[in-house]
Each structure stands twice: as structure tokens, then as C-alpha cells.
Amino acid sequence: MLAQVAELALDTFNAPDWVMQTLLLVLALGLPLAVFFAWAFELTPEGIKKEKDVDRSESITPKTGRKLDRVIIGVLAIALAYFIWESRLADESTATPVEAQTDAANAIIDKSIAVLPFSNRSPNPEDAFFTEGVHDDLLTHLSKIGDMHVISRTSVLGFAGTERKIPDIARELGVATIMEGAVQRAGNRVRINVQLIDGVTDQHLWAEIYDRELTVDNVFDIQSEITLAIAAALEAVLTPEDQATLADRPTQSLAAYDAYLRGMALLRGEANHFNQGKVAQAPAAFDAAIAADPDFGIAYAGKARALMYDLWVNGLTDKRIIEEARRNLDRARTLAPNAVETLIAEGYYFYYGLLDFERAMQFIDRAIEVAPKDAQVWKLKKFVANRLGRFDDADVAFNKAYSLDPLSTPYVYYHARDIAEFGRFDEALELIRGIRAIDGSLEQSVDGEAQIWLMHGDPERACEVLDSVTPEPDWNYYYITRVNCVALLPDDGGKHLIDEALAAVPTELINQAGYPEAAEMLKAFALEAVGRKEESRAVALAIAERISESNNPYPQGWLQPAYLPIDLPGLLGDLDGVRAAARDYEQNAAPDAIYDLLRHQAIADAFARAGDPDTAFDYVDRVIEVAGPPRYLALSINSAFDDVRDHPRYLALQAKYEVWAANQDARSAPRWGE
Fold first, then answer.
1. Is the dihedral of CA 412, 413, 417, 418 positive or negative?
2. Domain range holding 307?
């Protein structure tokens, strides 16, 4: 009877399964004892007596039975009340944004693993690149298995040498298992020991030591064996394609493999901003790999990718770099046409080199088919989808990459900035604050939050965020954003601070080959914003004089946001120059949906400064058509529009935003940022 009642009640209130299981176990264990004591003893006012010693006329069994009934009912009522609270009231509690983000990240995913960075136990510290390469290659193998969830390298780097408990790490990364390992390279031997650990119980599931002769075949064999052991432990299903991939041996030369790993190590700066010096060294490392093994297909892909990084990061415009990348890609396609490394390199070639986003996406989608759990490919897809204006696809790609690389600070930073462009301030701020919760001193987290406040039209809050930390000397984004914050402070608040902010800008980090006047252009804009228009004009004229002597005054043309061909004529009030630049943009600039938001706004600013507000608002309308009414907030603090705040089209934009904001407030309160 108790079991039937409990089953009905607990099912109604969605109690956990263990409650019913425990109740049945207690009833089962207690039933024999209850029957025996009920038969042999009776409760009396004088205490418990044997049943045979009780006078039937004095028996109080009916009374005690009713009391026990009431006690049982009372206990059940208390238990049911608890489960009502747990299932109904507890579910209604509201988590803060950071808690919600943490909860999502901490959800344990089935068949999931995080491979922590391997320890380098080699006697030669320079062999660290080999240890990193073995770890990276293992992750690449695992990412190709569609039935597994593999945390990306950038999210596990912070746990190198950590003393944190395994369950804590697993909980933070949202995985079921953790792998630790170490690599020792000495002479002609390699020793790799690994252990797979349950992320919940901290119990060892599997461990192995591989001690073999140092040959490239043995290294690849060990990686494949580890991958198969992990898949078996997680009960992941390997397709025939997965099996074939594990059997692949891209080179037979240890020297070529060593050089390739060195090249990849130099490219890893992409995970935390590009290290421009290291990126420039990478092609030579891949050349060494190719020299050691001319048939090493993915080494050609690595070189092509390195060339594209160098082109993009250092603002280079030499077409010979693109041509050299194409030659290497052609060789890679001949030797390793279906390798994920080749497909990714093709994606970067069409993205960075030719700005052909449609072709880039074709190769990216093929790479995802080969390595569906490779976070880097999903990141690349997010960026290219944005360029194509496929913003929903970009969101999907971000979420895929974020689940595989939840602690990738730069990636979250870029996505937060992107969605803030569309007025998704709450989401953007939650993402950025999630980064700050991990490490509040990171440049991206601080700069990202400040930029979101600027997009929301609140330079004071932006400055507060920036001033809450002590910046490092190489935080170039930070210093640029701080100049913008100070320049846009209301009530002339930035006039006495702007010189100090400008003096702190690391000019050598901002000025690059593709935009040598970036720091001076920043200065001209800042001085104009604080009302020091004559000084701003003097800086702009000096820039104009310098670039007039150049055969290529705008090396990056319309490609880089540091400054555009329309910025200088706008600052100088040269309407003819602004119109000529706008025509050049319309005729020659490659389409780019996300970047056009910036370029259209820059063109609007230039027309406003040069005295043509109607054309300025035409371009503003093009921005708002894509980004929505919240873009008005950034416009409201844009100094280029100070003289047209009473213009009917400006007032119409303001009214449109206010309607949008009222609708937002009606749907959710409190207001954003509170």
C-alpha cells in the first residue's frame, strides 16, 4: 500500500528516481522485522511487552495503530512537501547571467573529453614543441570522430601544470572525462604515458605507457592507439572514415615531422591574438618540413595558411604572397586533398587572400564534414558567415565552437562585439562578463565591455570599465578604446584627459605596413571630438602631405578599419574628396556584410563633417537597415553629427529607436545594463 501511494505521489511531483528506489529498499529490508515485532510484541502504557503477556481487555492496539497511521501520514506529507518545493519552487529561482552561463558551460556532455596539455619530461627544454605537437595532433585525431565531444586546445591550455582537482576541471569544461599525459623524448626513444580519468568520480578508467623507438611511424601509431582507447572507453562509434583517418601517415620523415610541428607552434599565436613576429617565421619552418619530405602534403597546406596569416595580420598587400600560397595549396591538394589541414588552408586562402567568402565557405563546410568536432573550423565558419551576411548561421557556428572551446577568450570577445553591433547588448555583456569572471585582467574582456558600452552610447561607463584595471604596455586595443571613450565624454569631460590618453597609445603597435598613419589618424579624430578642431585639422593636413608623396597612400584600401580612404577628406571638410572616395567604395570595395556596417558609418561620418547631411543619413539608413534601431545609440555620441542633431532625419531615427526601446522594456525589465 505504501509503495503504491508513494509511486503515485512521487511521480506526480517529479521526484528523482532514487527516492522511490530507496523507499522500496527500506520497505523490503524492514518488512520481515516489522512482521516479527508486530506478531511478537505490543506497545502498552507500561512500555513494550510480549504479545502473550498483554491482557486483551487492556490492549491499546487500536489506539496506537491509529497514532502510527497519523505519524506515517505526517512523514509522507513532509516528504511530499519537500519534493513539491524542490520540483516547483526551486525551478522558478532566477540565476544571474554569469550563473546561467556557468551552468550551461558546466553541463556534462556524454562521450566528452578534455585532454590537458601534456607535461614535457624531455631533458632538452627545446623539445617542448614536440610535446605540444603530439598533444595537438592527438586533439586533431579526436576532433575527427563525430560521435565524441572534444574540448579544443585553447580551452585546456590554462590547466597546464595545474593542481586543481580533476572533478573541478571537468565541471568547468562540461566533460565526462579528463586525460592527462606526459612526453619524454631522449635520444632515439620516445616515452608517452597517458591516463583517462572519470570527471565525476576522479577514478582512473584507463592508463598506458608507450615506450618505443623514436620514429615517426611509432609516434603516429601511439596517437592512433590512444585515440582508439579513448573511443572504446567512451563507447564512441567510429565510422569507416574515422578508421581510415587514424591509419593515415602523412610523412615517413621524423625531420619533416619535427619541422612541421615547429611551424604549427609558430602559428598558434592565433589563439590569443596573432603574434606577428612568430607568424612571419612560420613559412620557413614549413619550408624545412617540405625540404625533408617533398611529398608531405599537409606541410604545403601549413605554409599556405602561414602566408595567409602573415598577409592578414601584418596588413600586407603583395600579390606575390597570394600567388605563393596558391602554389603551395595546389601541391597540398595533389598530395592530401581530403586532409582537414588542406581544407582549412583553402578556406583561409579564399577568406584572407581573395575575399571570396562563398568559395571559402565551401571549403569550410567540407572541413566540418572531415572534422565535425574541430572548434577552429566552426570559428572560421562563424567569421565567414558574418561576412556573407548569414548572421543566423554565424550564431549557430558560434554556439558549436563555444561548446568545444568554452574558454577561448578572443573568440568570445569578437562574437560579443559582433552581436552588440545589432543591439544584442544583454547577450554581449553576459559573454564578456563571463570572460572577466575567468580572468578580469584580460585585455579582451576589459576592452570588449568598454566597446559594448560605447555602442550603447555610454562613454562614461566605458571609461569606468577601462579604468578598473592596470593595462599592460602592449594592450593596443585597450589604449585605442580609451582614447575613444575619453574623446566622447559628455560636457567637455574629455578635454583635459585626451592628451594623456593619446600619449599612452603604443604607436609602434598600431602603425603597420598596411596603415602607417593609424596613430595620427586616431589623434586627429580624438582632437576633433573634444572640440579642438584647429589642432585636429593641423594633424590631418600633415597626414595628407605625407601620403601625397606615396605611390600607394592607402595600402589597405577599404580592407582595414584603422583608417579608410574617406576618413581624411572628411576630417578636412573636403566634400569633393568625400564624394570621390564614396564613388571608389561603391565601385571597387569587395562586398562584406559585417564590415559594411563600419564602412557605411565611416562614409556617413565623412559626409556629415563635409556638410552633406542628407547623403550622410542615406548611409546611416543602410547601417540601420542591417543592424536595427539600436544603432542610434552610437550615433547619439558620434561627434560627426553634433551639428545635425535637429535635422528631421536625425529626429526620425531617434523616434524610431525610442519606439524600439519601449517595446524592449515592455517585454523585459529592468533596462539593459542595470
1. negative
2. 258-374
Cell numbers at 337, concatenated = 586533398
- How far apart, in whole angstroms, are the C-alpha atoms of residue 155 and residue 173? 8
Please give the full DSSP string across 97-114, using - where no structure is assigned.
HHHHHHHHHHSPEEEEEE
Residues 193 and 316 in one domain: no
- Strand-pair partners of 49: 42
DSSP single-letter state for residue 423: T
Cβ-based neighbours of 96, under 8 Å, separated by 6 or more: none
Is the Cβ–Cβ distance between 553 and 568 less than 8 Å? no
Looking at 51, 69, 92, the residue that finishes a domain is 92
All three cell numbers of 650: 536625425
Cα separation values, 349 from 307, 324, 360, 368, 595, Å: 9, 11, 7, 17, 19
Say if residue 408's pLDDT is above 90. no
202 and 274 within one domain:
no
By CB atoms closer than 10 A (0-12, 13-18, 19+), residue 450 is buried
Q: Are residues 239 and 270 in the same domain?
A: no
Cis amide prior to 670 (ω within 30 degrees): yes
CA-CA distance, 178 to 200, in Å (whole number)? 10
State which H helix or E strand residue 161 sits in: none
Identify whether residues 240 and 137 lie together within a single domain.
yes
In degrees to the nearest 10, what's the CA dihedral of 445, 446, 447, 451? Answer: 90
Q: Phi first, then psi: give them for residue 663, nearest 5 degrees.
A: -65, -35
Q: In this structure, is residue 48 part of a structural domain?
A: yes
| Residue 600 CB coordination number (10 Å) | 21
- pLDDT beyond 90 at 641: yes
Alpha helices, H only, 504-612: 507-510, 518-529, 533-548, 567-571, 575-588, 593-609
Domain count, the chain: 3
* Maximal CA-CA distance, the chain: 122
Alpha-carbon distance of 120 to 153, in angstroms, equals 16
Tell me, yes or no, whether 216 and 288 share the same domain: no
How far apart CA 415 and CA 444 sit, in angstroms, is 11
Amino acid at 37: F
Q: Cα–Cα distances in Å, from 354 out to 328, 358, 556?
A: 15, 11, 13
> Do both 29 and 77 map to the same domain?
yes
Distance CA 222, CA 212 (A): 9
Residue 354's CATH number: 1.25.40.10
Among the residues of 47-184, which ranges form H helices? 61-84, 97-106, 128-143, 153-156, 166-173
Q: What is the pLDDT of residues 355-385, one digit of tens each?
A: 999 999 999 999 999 999 999 999 999 999 9
- Classify residue 64: in a domain, yes or no: yes
Q: What is the pTM of this model?
A: 0.80
Amino acid at 93: S
Structural domain includes residue 168: yes
Does residue 115 share a domain with residue 84? no
Query: Cα separation of 673 and 661, whole Å?
Result: 13
Task: Name the H helices within 119-247.
Answer: 128-143, 153-156, 166-173, 216-233, 240-247
305: three-class secondary structure by DSSP: helix
Assigned domain for 73 exists:
yes
Residue 100 pLDDT > 60, yes or no? Answer: no
Domain's final residue, options 66, 92, 118: 92
pLDDT exceeds 90 at position 267? no
Q: What is the rounded CA–CA span in Å between residue 463 and residue 478?
A: 11
Statement to judge: residues 74 and 162 lie in one domain: no
Q: CA of 60: how far to CAs of 49, 51, 351, in Å? A: 12, 12, 90
